[in-house]
Design a protein that fits this description.
The chain has ten helices and 13 strands. With 312 residues, the chain is α+β, with helices and mostly antiparallel strands.
Length: 312
């Protein structure tokens, strides 16, 4: 008989061990700690287990803000479902529904809306796979599809910067644009641009790279004299193959500057003998840009959320 309980510290290594069996992707203890346990909003009472004697049959992980996140504050109406899954041999027995209900009941008193996956600053899954059984599961319990999201990659084994991009780069250089790695003295101007034009999460990512000493190696700038015209960052979460965030100032968009930055990033990654460049999520408009630059869509997803009063 299945019993339900909240997790104890000794259970987390089991969740990491069983992660691939449940979700089809690997997990490490370091990543699990980094994303969940080290988050200041982590609450052990928001991790539920479905136990078959001493075997974990499934689990659910929720989080809500107890401390403000930069300019977003506490986001007091929202909570997030970071992960929910059941081992294959225990599926279609209602276990997933009970785990979902546990998470909804826990959050219903203080929160109005549950968002699936996309939590800042870090998350396990950005959205719900469009081709998965999970999509119909959430739809049947009152969650609604929002915008589509796309995971993509680029094989770097045969990478060579395209001639068109090389020409664009040279044209920009002739116009006075300088492409180079960030220097720490660039940080105030870069952070000012990000604060004015992009998200607080991107601001935080640059600050973390500065704090951990990787900014000068992992951030490339396009400089218009002393002013950043754009930038691209990679490995901000410690994964050398993952790139982004990536942004171009409004006054330099739609002129090819972004493509040059993107390919300079890939060239550096290839020079480090990396065979793949990838990111976990982007929107449909950006997806088309990346397709034109040689990336491949690995997964189509939907952002989803549900009102806790009406979800069941």
């Amino acid at each position: 008989m299945i019993r339900y309980c909240t997790a104890e510290p000794e259970n987390y290594s089991v969740l990491v061990r069983d992660w691939q069996d449940i979700f089809g992707v690997p997990m490490t203890m370091r990543t699990f700690l980094h994303v969940l346990i080290c988050d200041e909003n982590f609450d052990s009472q928001a991790v539920w287990l479905a136990m078959d004697d001493d075997v974990v049959a499934g689990f659910a992980i929720s989080i809500r803000r107890r401390y403000p996140y930069i300019d977003r504050g506490l986001e007091e109406d929202r909570c997030w479902l970071l992960a929910i899954g059941v081992k294959p041999k225990y599926r279609r027995q209602g276990i997933g529904l009970v785990l979902l209900q546990k998470a909804m009941e826990y959050n219903r008193i203080e929160r109005k809306q549950m968002i699936l996956g996309m939590y800042s600053p870090l998350y396990f899954f950005p959205a719900v796979n469009a081709d998965s059984e999970a999509l119909s599961f959430f739809l049947s319990h009152g969650f609604e599809k929002q915008n589509m999201a796309f995971a993509m990659h680029r094989n770097l084994n045969d990478y060579k910067m395209p001639e068109k991009v090389l020409k664009h780069r040279n044209d920009f250089i002739d116009q006075g644009i300088v492409f180079r790695n960030m220097k720490y003295e660039d940080a105030p101007a870069l952070l000012n641009m990000i604060s004015d034009e992009f998200t607080t999460g991107w601001y935080r990512n640059v600050c973390q790279a500065i704090s951990n000493g990787t900014a000068e190696d992992k951030i490339i700038l396009a400089m218009d004299h002393s002013r950043p015209a754009g930038y691209i960052q990679r490995a901000y979460d410690g994964d050398p193959k993952r790139f982004g965030p990536f942004g171009v100032s409004k006054s330099f968009r739609n002129c090819g500057l972004g493509s040059v930055l993107l390919h300079l990033c890939w060239q550096q990654m290839r020079d480090e003998d990396l065979d793949t460049a990838y990111f976990k999520t982007t929107d449909e408009q950006a997806m088309r840009f990346y397709l034109k630059n040689g990336m491949t869509v690995d997964q189509k997803m939907y952002h989803m959320n549900g009102e806790l009063k009406t979800c069941k």
